[in-house]
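[Meeting: bench + compute handoff]

Bench side (C.D.) handed over the final construct sequence. Compute side (W.E.) agreed to return the predicted structure before the next meeting so the bench team could plan truncations. Sequence as handed over:
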Amino acid sequence: MTAVTLPLLPRAGLAALTVLATSLAVASSAPGRASTLFAAAEVDQQNFLLVAAPIGSKGDKAQLNIYEQLKPVRPCFEVGEGTPAPVNPLLATFDFTGICSRYIDANGYSVRVGGQDLATSYRLMVTRSGGDMLLLAFPTKAGAGPEMVVARTRGSAPGFLKLQLEPGWRLMRRQFGGRNLGHLYVYADSWPGTAATAAQPQSTTVEPSQPQPAQQPLAPPALLPANKL
């Protein structure tokens, strides 16, 4: 077998590769890194509905669905009375292209707090707690932040149920270069129990905030975790 000799890089080339590798490592580990890439734009909250959608053969588990009414051609969903409020996902009964949008997993939605895009460090999950169903923002990395209750059905029942956002939470749309993307943020201006990490938007767009070490806490305050069943 013939030995293959790899060419030696000059010292300048090795140094350049070392700097590049270090930069990539720092960028990938920096908290809120995506906030330098994406902005957040306001949406009309009345056009959206958060739903605890049953999954599994028994329907005893649920996941987050978000429905959007794009055009008033025909209704995309129907919400019943009572608490919890039952939901009839009408968009499942017709070709809703151009009329409705449906966001059913992490490709369509993620968590954002102020200028921090938390798509890589938080996930949204629906869980039962006592006689309620909660939408939780759950940290997936150590030190990412506290577990947060984002919405609740305010009761338990079979089928699709409306999730009502907790105070301080709303939907926003991800933007890149001033262009709206097909991705939604479940958004809060600040971490619960802290001063705002991003100012209220003065126009339709919230630009990512610049780091202010003197004003930001070292870590979000710990919250009591929800009692999950």
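W.E. noted at the follow-up: The mean pLDDT is 78. C.D. will use this when planning the next construct.
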